[in-house]
Design brief:
Layout lengths: L2 E13 L6 H12 L3 E4 L9 E6 L5 E9 L2 E16 L4
Antiparallel strand pairs: 1-5, 2-3, 3-4, 4-5
Length: about 90
C-alpha cells in the first residue's frame, strides 16, 4: 500500500529574564515532564545548553536550547510530531 506521512513542525522563541539559569532549566526539563519521556543522546556537540527529548507514546520530539537574540537571553523550542498517515488511492 502506498502511504505518505504527514507531520507537524513547531518552533517557538521564548525570552527569559536575566535571572534564569538556562543551563539548569534545560538540564531539569526531562524530569519536570514526568513519565513517558526519554532523553535522546547528543549526536552533534554544541557549545550551548541543549536537550533532545522524545515522548515515547507518540514519538513527539522536542529540542530545547539556549539562544541569544540581539543580546536578549532566551530558549528556543523545536517540536516535531507525526500527524498521521494518509492512504493514497490505488491507480
Amino acid at each position: 500500500m502506498n502511504k505518505d506521512g504527514a507531520f507537524f513542525t513547531g518552533y517557538w522563541e521564548v525570552d527569559v529574564s536575566e535571572q534564569v539559569d538556562i543551563r539548569d532549566f534545560i538540564a531539569g526539563v526531562r524530569d519536570s515532564l514526568g513519565d513517558g519521556w526519554r532523553t535522546e543522546p547528543q549526536l552533534i556537540e554544541v557549545s550551548f545548553p541543549q536537550a533532545n527529548l522524545i515522548q515515547e507514546a507518540t514519538g513527539v520530539s522536542v529540542t530545547i536550547e539556549e539562544s541569544d537574540r540581539d543580546g536578549r537571553k532566551g530558549i528556543d523550542l523545536l517540536a516535531i510530531s507525526r500527524c498521521g498517515i494518509e492512504e493514497q488511492p490505488t491507480p
